[in-house]
Write a sequence for this structure.
């Protein structure tokens, strides 16, 4: 992999024993991570701190938790507040040379129920982050977008060149965020890269709400040997990617040269159906519990799998965790937190 001229390189460590082997250069001195108390954001913060970067975190703690930042709390500056609070956003962006925008309402069903409120956070919030970057001279902004933008186009894998086909307010909000990002590069020269995460899982993903990610819910059910609910007939598929791989994609996007104004898939290219996911979990954890099938979920995407070529050529990105390996790491975390005090409260 070549990265052009950069002053420093670092051995990147990922979460909980899952070491990332590559040496990734990191040339930024100070980062803002919005949504940094959340599931993905907090892992990113851990890695940035490990890279010697000064880190500001802005989070309203609506779904994130300070306990996610416990390991690095003395090394970061945490600001509790809303992404749409523009004076606060300017204050926390000051002096930063890179911004990782993770803050969002991530639940697809919640955006179906509350399309206006969630658009204010997800779309307007993204615009506020971009504007703060422009006004404060932040060089690069990496944005958490989503494979949800592909919607129900039946073709898989999904390539970045496909026409987006959003099926939920969430997908529209993420797509509009991408459009704003492209314009901030074209009009104002802010280097933007949108990463279209596929379904992310791993430690710190909280199963505490019906809106939580399916793997966190299923592992919780497995730990209690209780049946999971599968929405619809379970033949819908997802491309599950482990959180440490998503952190790696963000760091590679920070390092990449000449790729501004683009959208890049972050997935494995290896989809599984929801039925197969429960079977795998049952097999790994040696439980024999039949799932209950419920109504299919409104706005649910049927087939999802990442085309991975562009991520490989633009970023040099290749995921390192198989689903089985990632599930084992995640299950350990579930057992540990459950044995302690239960999951972090919001
Ligand atoms: P998360 O809910 O754990 O993280 C989101 C964080 O944003 C939380 O800490 C929350 O408190 C914070 N937040 C929400 N609204 C805010 C506001 N108005 N102001 C300030 N902070 C606010 O979810 P996550 O899974 O870590 O998601 C991170 C990002 O990745 C999101 O942008 C999400 O849309 C995107 N994404 C996630 C997945 C996935 O499978 N988890 C897939 C695709 C994209
Ligand atoms: C998830 C993310 C979303 C992201 C998208 C990218 C969460 C909460 N949402 O949405 O932010 O942009 O991936 O693809 O992380 N299911 C069940 N039983 C359950 C829970 C879910 O059958 O108890 C099914 C759902 O109907 C769906 C699949 O599992 O078909 C995945 O659901 P979920 O984990 O909520 O993810 P997405 O809706 O794909």
């Amino acid at each position: 992999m070549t990265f052009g001229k950069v002053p420093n390189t670092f051995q990147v460590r990922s979460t909980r024993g899952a070491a990332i082997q590559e040496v990734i250069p990191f040339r930024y001195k100070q980062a803002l991570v919005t949504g940094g108390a959340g599931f993905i954001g907090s892992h990113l913060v851990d890695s940035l701190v490990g890279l010697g970067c000064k880190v500001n975190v802005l989070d309203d703690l609506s779904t994130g938790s300070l306990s996610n930042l416990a390991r690095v709390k003395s090394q970061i500056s945490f600001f509790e507040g809303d992404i749409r609070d523009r004076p606060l956003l300017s204050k926390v962006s000051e002096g930063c040379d890179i911004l990782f925008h993770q803050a969002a309402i991530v639940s697809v069903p919640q955006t179906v129920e509350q399309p206006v409120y969630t658009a204010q956070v997800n779309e307007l919030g993204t615009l506020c982050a971009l504007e703060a970057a422009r006004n404060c001279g932040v060089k690069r902004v990496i944005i958490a977008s989503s494979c949800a933008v592909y919607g129900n186009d039946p073709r898989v894998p999904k390539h970045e060149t496909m026409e987006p086909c959003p099926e939920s307010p969430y997908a529209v909000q993420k797509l509009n965020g991408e459009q704003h990002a492209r314009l901030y590069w074209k009009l104002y020269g802010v280097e933007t890269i949108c990463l279209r995460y596929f379904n992310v899982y791993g430690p710190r993903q909280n199963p505490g709400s019906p809106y939580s990610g399916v793997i966190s819910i299923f592992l919780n059910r497995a730990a209690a040997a209780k049946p999971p609910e599968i929405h619809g007939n379970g033949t819908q598929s997802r491309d599950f990617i482990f959180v440490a791989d998503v952190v790696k994609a963000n760091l590679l996007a920070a390092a990449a040269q000449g790729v501004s104004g683009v959208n890049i898939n972050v997935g494995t290219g290896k989809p599984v159906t929801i039925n197969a996911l429960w079977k795998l979990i049952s097999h790994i954890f040696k439980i024999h519990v039949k799932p209950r099938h419920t109504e299919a979920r409104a706005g649910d995407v049927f087939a999802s799998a990442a085309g991975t070529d562009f991520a490989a050529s633009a970023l040099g990105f290749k995921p390192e965790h198989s689903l089985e390996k990632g599930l084992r790491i995640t299950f350990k975390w579930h057992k540990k937190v459950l044995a302690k005090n239960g999951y972090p409260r919001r």
User: Anything to note?
Assistant: Residues 31 and 55 are 5 Å apart (CA to CA).
